[in-house]
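Before relying on records like the one below, remember that each one covers exactly one chain. Contacts with other chains, cofactors or solvent are not represented anywhere in the record.
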Amino acid sequence: MTELRSILDEAAREGLISPEAGGRLLPFLSERGVAVVGHAIGVAEGQPAVAAQGQAWSDTETPRFVRGFHDVLITIGVIVALCGLWGLAALYAVLPAIIVLSEILVHRQRLALPAVSLTIALFCWTCLLMFRFFPPWTPTSQSFGAEATQFVAGLPIILGAYYVRYRVPLSLALCIMSVLAFVLTLLLRLVQWASSNPAFFLDHPVALALLALICALGLFAMALYFDLGDRLRRTTRSDIAFWLHLGAAPALLYSTVSLLSFGGDVHIFDVANMSARTPAVVATVTALMLIGLIIDRRAFVTSGLLSLGVAIFSVFRQGSATADTYIFSTLIVVGAIVLIIGTGWMPLRRLVLRALPPAIANRLPPG
């Protein structure tokens, strides 16, 4: 991506193309798998360009929605303007603003970071709109009613339409996540109907954790589908996989921890009773870190840091130390784990890849 941008910038300086045309060509070419290979440009229809033989693999995992401070400045303006409009105008007035900004910043100028911020704004707007008509829960509700299914049903429709128009990877990822959430609500309602017990999941929390784990595994499978289709991470399939992994990792973590805790009444962030779940949290986070090493996705590491910190905090809290001692001790331990994994990521990953069968290792990103 960086080499392709420099080539287009050089073409603009030579007067071959205008700077505006270069800015529009960059995402257009990258979405179609065009990349710099050595000193040439490789194109493969629907596939990423193949690296030249002997070319060193650069471990970047750089999300392509960060392209420069120009995008950051525009994004700040988008966020401030939408927040102001959200506070002064009605809810329905925000959608036209999102569409107009998307037409200018995403469809015409192809700015990456503003596209992400506008997609998040559309997601929040859709959630508020659906909550106004179909509140998914009430303080006295003990079951998953039709409102929860109707609440989720609107998300994939709007986000899918947004992706068809603007091709923002995050919008497709959120659309896939919302489809799986819709499937989960249907499964919950089906189980409640089959059991003839509206409070079935209050009486059997293990069943709820199991269904959540099944949907989390489905989301992880979708992320792998996009990831393995672009092992060199040269196309937007990698961007879609990045967002899907970012959602799949916490879903896997919390559903697995809930299932391993046998559906007790202890909540994941209930620090007073967290020591009972500490082994499950540590084991799950360790497994996710190993998965992250195998597929070269750091999202699986970062998603578990908060839960790991809470688990370590609960262990220190059992002692007789002061509050400041176990708070700062937790920060030191978590920080040390992050530094060790971060600085040793590539050596650790090469070690893990060598332990895998060649048939599997050759389908993963190079180590």
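Residues 37-58 have pLDDT under 50 and may be disordered.
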